[in-house]
Every structure is written in C-alpha cells, then in structure tokens.
Request: fold
Amino acid sequence: MSVSVAIVGRPNVGKSTLFNRLVGKKLALVDDTPGVTRDRREGEGRIGDLTFTLIDTAGYEDADDATLEGRMRQQTEAAIQTADIILLMIDARAGVTPMDEHFAQLLRKANKKVTLLANKVEGRAAEAGLFEAYKLGFGDPVALSAEHGLGLADLYHIVATAIEAAAKDLEEGHEEFEQAIAQLDESMMPEINVELDEDGKGVEDGKGTYDPTRFLNVAIVGRPNAGKSTLINKMVGEERVLTGPEAGITRDAIMVPWEWQGRTINLVDTAGIRKRAKVQEKLEKLSVADALRSIQYAEVVVLMLDATVPFEKQDLQLADLVEREGRALVIALNKWDLVKNKQEHLKEMQESCTRLLPQLKGVPLVTLSGLRGKNIDRLMEAVLKVEKTWNSRISTSRLNRWLIEKTESHPPPAVSGRRLRFRYMTQAKTRPPSFIIFSSRPDAVPKSYERYLINGLREAFNLDGVPIRMWLRGGDNPYHDKEKAKRY
Reply:
C-alpha cells in the first residue's frame, strides 16, 4: 500500500534535488536560482524497499493570492492537503529563517504528520543551523544532503514508520488513485514503431495494435501564453497547474492523469516554447528541453495555437518536430471566443494548414476556448480518432491493389531511358504507419514521386494527421519463392 509524501519548504532549500534523488530520475528542473519549481509534481519515490507517491512543491512565500507567488503558494497548500506525510525542508547552512518559522506555524494547523529535514549538512557550516532547527518544534531534525545522498537511512526509518501508521487510515479510493499513478509512471514511455508480421496474419485489417482500454499519453505543446495550462485545469475540473496572465509561468512538464469516458488520459502540460534565438536564460533552456522531451513520451500531441495569431514560424517548426518524432498530431485553435467572423477565419485557417503543413495533410483542426471549456469533447474525439489512425494496419493485398492502380494511372518517370518498376508493397510497422516498397531501382525513384505515393496513401486509407514512413528497397517480391514452393 502506498501513501503520498510532500516535500515543502521555502525557495531554494533543495526540495527538487531530493525529489529527483528519491524518484531516481531528473524529472524536476534544478538550478541555483530560487523559485525554479512553480507547479506541484508527482512521482514514484523509493527508499530501499519502500515505495510511495512523492510530491515536489514550489517554494513557499507569503504573498498576495493575485500574484504569481501567491498562486504558487496555493499549489503548495493544495499538496499539503492531499499528502499523508509532510517533509518540511530547511537549509541548515542558512539556519532557521523567519519564513521557516512562519511556514512551520501553518503546518501545525494542517493536522498532518510533519518531519523536519535539515538539508545541506555537508561541512561544519551546517552545525549551528542543525541545532537551531529544534526550535521549530517538530522533534529531531533529519540531517540530510540531497545532493550527495547523505541521511537517507534516517529518512527511511521515519518514512517506514509513517507509512505503517498512515496505511491504516487510507481510504479505498485514495489507495486506488495512488496505485494508478505508480503504474502510469512506470509505463509512461509509449510503444512506437511496432513491427508487424510479414504476412500480416493475426492482425485485423485497419485495427493494427489499437487498444481502446489502454491509457493514452497526450502532450499539450505550443508557444508561451497559448492557454495550455488553462485548458488542462478546465479538463480535470480543478486548478491542478499554475495559470495566469503572465507568459512563461509553466517550467516543468507536469503529467496530470485524467479520466475521460472511462479511459485514463495522461495529460502533459509543458512550458511554452519560443524561438531559439529568444531563449537566453538557463532556466528557460531547461524548460524548453523538458517540453521537447515530453513529445517523445506522448502518443498524441496537441499543438495549441492562439487563434488570434495562428501559424507563426514557431508553430510550424513544432508541428514539423512532431512529424519527425513520428507522433500523431491534433491542432487546437484556442481563444476562439475572441475571434470575429468565425466561419471566414476558420476557412482561412484550414487553407493555411493545408498549405503550410503538407507533410501532415488532413491534420485535425479543432476550435476551442480553454478558459470557457468549450469544445473539449470535440478535441478529445479528434485525439482518439487520430490515435486510432496512428495504430492503423492495412492488409498487404489492399496495398498492392492500390499500388498497381496508382502506378498505372501515373507511371513513375523513366530514368536514363530505363523504366522504374514497383514489384511489391507491404506495411512493416505501425505507430506510425510505415511501408516498404520493393522496386527495380530504389535509388532512382524521384522524391517527388515518393511524395505522390505518400499523399495517395494518406487519401486512399484515411491516414490524416499522422506521419507516414516509406522505404524503397531493391530486389524481387520476397514472397515469390514461398508461393512457388506451395505449388509443388
């Protein structure tokens, strides 16, 4: 049975460093600059044989609710309310500060099990702060160095005792939620480039590896202030991630599990991605790298555009990146409620999408308002539809009939006076759909004719919004010898 453990404290005491060490991965961004973490992040923590849900939080600051720091504080308070165990961290080298004392008073009112962690104890400079920590009234502090892994043995015994005590009081619904989170974290990386049998046996035509009961990873990416975090909060029905009028609030890529029509959807909120030339600060570079990495963990990517200024160069580069990574794509036009002459504007957007993204012809284009919660159902319908297309499997017989018709209606050009012949075609992989064509001279096939075939595949088999991979190989029909042997 698992319980939730929240790491709290003022800014820059080492909470994210400890979080990364206990989950065994560099999930949270870490930097010497105070206030790097803004949203609360969950992960599966481990100390020895103990497994628990770990929550990293933003540094606590006493600020007005309307400010960015105030909204960060509300996220931390929400984590305290949901956690079973609170780890209050202080900087032993700096000693106990007035903010530490103020935060300790608030935690006493929360009626939670609180353990005091004195971090950064390496060296004699921390001795005075370690003794000073007793005045906070939470008993013996755990001397810890999150950076170097010191003190984890003491932390093990404290967490083990707390888990045994808290396990008796866990509600059944809370237990199921924690187990689901742990399972999602272990298998978050999607299965891609799924190889198929050579003869396609055992795979029903058109369905491929599609499993509508399996959880789905959906990353929401886009430029800063496009409304990504606002949309996620509206979808899950709570202020799960930090939002506001300021651009660039989100820094870490945050996964938020969500149930939609009985299926678990792992929504991944990401930092806004600006042009590379404008990204100068180290923190923003880390945030952008984290956002780009989230595309690799996704199966479907929702590219969020501001409907008032859509299809800028950065939007097109992000769409091209999704195509190169082989992920399914849905384009969401947010802030649609601010658009005038909606029908004319939508027609212009569809024409621009077709013209500017020929490599993803037919990609779904959904208009919505994240702030008002309009058309979220339409967005999810498009997401599930494009996921099914991403898993498509087309039978070899249909592919070869299509190839014959396509090459007869528009034969490939002759190269050096010699005609090109296409002998055989089959689908090799799904996620994304990938095909192999055996040709007499694969190196001589022009790129324009390859695009002609890919566009034909997309149109004939309804492969809208997903990347298509095609490889040309030399040699004869690989099944010719098998067929000949069967005759004898």
